[in-house]
Amino acid sequence: MAGLEDLYREIILDHYRTPRNRGELEPPAVSAEGHNPLCGDEIRIFLDVRDGIVTDVKFSGSGCSISQSSASMMTSAVKGKDVAQVRAIVRKFKNMMTVEEDTETPIDESLTLGDLEALQGVVKFPVRIKCATLGWNTLLDALDAAKA
Ligand code: ZN
């Protein structure tokens, strides 16, 4: 399994060094801020939802490689999806991260997380789970701000 772990490390480093969708969006896009005081991570998510579709999403902030690469991967995974799909991806990702707050949304067994599975190894380091899920929790706040 060493090969797979190397691949996963490469994916995480690639998103850290070359973040996708980094930046800000002007209103009417909404934004939400998240902090992980345990590690000092800060993430701000900008979200543009039109007719139930996440037409654009960007993030800014600073922090450890896990928090920033997870946010980058998250934006890549949800951009262009409808809100129900986005919530399903969040649900599945947090389930992979062993964070089970939203037990009302069923887990979509057919959904594949693709590159996001690179973050699965973080589960072995419980203190880093908050780093990996910070951008995702902030995305949920932004969805609430967008009333989507
Ligand atoms: Zn962190």
Explain what the structure shows:
The structure is a single chain. With 148 residues, the protein is α+β, with helices and mostly antiparallel strands. The protein has a single domain (2-145), classed as Sufe protein. Chain: A, CATH 3.90.1010. It is 43% helix and 18% strand. It has 4 helices and 3 strands; from the N terminus they run αβββααα. Helix 3 runs antiparallel to helix 4 (126-145). The longest helix is centred in the C-terminal third of the chain and has 20 residues, at 126-145. It starts with a helix and ends with a helix. The mean pLDDT is 93. It binds zinc ion. Zinc ion (ZN) binds at residues 36, 39, 41, 63-64, 66-67, 131. Zinc ion binds next to helix 2.
Main attributes of the structure:
148 residues, Sufe protein. Chain: A, 3 strands, 43% helix, 18% strand, binds zinc ion
Strand order of the largest sheet: 1-2-3
| Total domain modules | 1
Succession of helices and strands: HEEEHHH
**Beta-strand fraction estimate:** 15-25%
**How would you sum up the global shape?**
globular
Instruction: Please compute the radius of gyration using only Cα atoms.
Output: 14 Å
Query: From the 3D coordinates, which CATH architecture would you assign?
Result: Alpha-Beta Complex
Q: Could you tell me the number of beta strands?
A: 3
Helix content: 40-55%
Instruction: Report low-confidence residues grouped into runs of 5 or more.
Output: none
Count of helical regions? 4
